Amino acid sequence: MDAATPPQSPLRSMKVRCCIVGGGPAGMMLGYLLGRAGIDVLVLEKHADFFRDFRGDTVHPSTLQVMDELGLIDGFLKLPHQRLQTMDGLIGGTRVRIADLSRLHTKYPFIAFMPQWDFLNFLREAGKRFASLKVLMNTEAVDLIRHGEIIAGVRAKTGDGIVDIEADLTIACDGRHSTVRERAGFSVEEIGAPMDVLWFRVGRTPGETENLFARVEPGKMMVTFDRGDYWQCAYVIAKGQYDAVKARGLQALLDDVVRMAPILKHGVADVKSFDDVKLLTVAINRLKRWTRPGLLCIGDAAHAMSPVGGVGVNLAVQDAVATANLLADKLTRGCPTEDELDAIRRRRAFPVKMTQAMQVVVQNNIISGALKGGDRPLKVPLIVRLITALPWLQSIPARFIAIGVRPEHVHSTAARQS
What we know:
The protein is α+β, with helices and mostly antiparallel strands. The protein folds into two domains: about 300 residues, FAD/NAD(P)-binding domain; about 90 residues. About 30% of the residues lie in helices and about 30% in strands. Strands 1, 2, 8, 9, 10, 11, 19 and 20 form an eight-stranded mixed β-sheet that branches. The chain has a seven-stranded mixed β-sheet with strand order 6-5-14-15-16-13-17. Strands 3-7-4 form a three-stranded antiparallel β-sheet. Strand 15 and strand 16 form a beta hairpin. The longest helix has about 35 residues.
């Protein structure tokens, strides 16, 4: 028996026009947009809920603009969130300002920090008014259905057994470890990253305020986010060094954390063991080809992003908007041709490549040098010194982070709902 084939035969089958695999930001936004357009669409989410800690929680102005264009922004911004406009840091003890979003000419000049499960639940609830949209939780795609060379749907595992879901078009939104991508045999171009990240949360009292975003010292780097009642912390380590960090012991890690960020001294006791620390293995990669007949990959399934700039969620949303803009009308008539599907790659490849290139520049010129350590004082890179000294330059990294390269706007039509 082939290892890729589940042992059970399907208990039942169903058919839809479009099956989206993965209920993350790309999948839920695309599901909402296609449901809004009246397309018979099914979103599969392998977990029973959206609650997973240390996922991308940054909603950037480009995504806020999309929510505004969909008429969802007022309700969305009523959800609990924190707002960030300036990004300040300490590099070798020197205070720098990396970006100032208030200088942007955009309707929402801030980054909203919101648990990703709140964002996804909001989209699911908002989409319930579209009869053509269905979301199946606790449903994991485990293989593809093929009719010759054509991808004709997915075989999925549910709590009740195996189900075959036939679809005119299958769209993989199941992340950087995409099962659909692997089953389809796509080739991945690895670009690489010199670091991994340890995520953890530290208690915060109402009186604790600090607007420092990043701290960089020889051999060490940490980013902190004010999340209201706690600090979300990202401790950056050299690629593959997690076992070495664990060997030093938890207390050594926490001592480094407090020394770099004294404001965390009281709350750091919340980190009681390495079970409270989540390892994010950083990768930057992209597919050379995003399509097969009947199949399209978008979001992290097509291009994994570094956490630099926190742009991954927003790139995924942009992919979803572009996909709906280009395919919604065509899906009313059946499955788009592979050339029509490839229009998504042709539209989105340039923003993806430019964003990844800028992430590599930051990795190579700031992060790699910091993680090498050594006894020499850490120097602030010239470009960072210029940005700090000339405030008008702060709008350049702000625009790259907040708006991105060639942002997408909602052009797909909304079907009349009964």
